[in-house]
Amino acid sequence: MIPLSYYLVLSAILFTIGVVGVLVRRNAIMIFMAIELMLNAVNLSFVAIGKHLDSLDGQVFVFFVMAVAAAEVAVGLAIIVNLSRNKETINVDEINIMKW
Asked: By the 8 A CB rule, do 11 and 2 touch?
């Protein structure tokens, strides 16, 4: 049996990689991939803690997180496609739609 701490350490490593990806990358699609990695890291910790406590609550939380993540990806990719058509780039440094 694998201890709970291994799962939580793996989850923390994946979450850290996701945070670094969001902070370092300038490509909007890569930033979305890093956000999804962070969400999956949290899902891993939910499932691991739920298994450790012999409860299904962790899996229920994962279900809702995945539903929100799917909606986020659908809206986010639609925004990226729209911006790439209008601005012809998906580099977040070059996109400044709030500027007059």
From this structure: no
Alpha helices in the chain (DSSP H): 4-24, 28-52, 57-87
Distance (Å, whole) CA 89 – CA 35: 20
Domain ranges in the chain?
4-87
Query: Which two tokens mark 69?
Result: 């993540």
pTM of the predicted protein model: 0.86
18 token code pair: 């996701």
- Backbone φ, ψ for residue 76 (5° rounding): -65, -45
Could you read off the pLDDT of 70-82 as tens digits, one per residue? 999 999 899 888 8
Residue 7, CA distances (Å) to 4, 31, 37, 45, 49 in order: 5, 24, 15, 7, 9
The arrangement of secondary structure in 4-87, i.e. its CATH architecture, is Orthogonal Bundle (1.10)
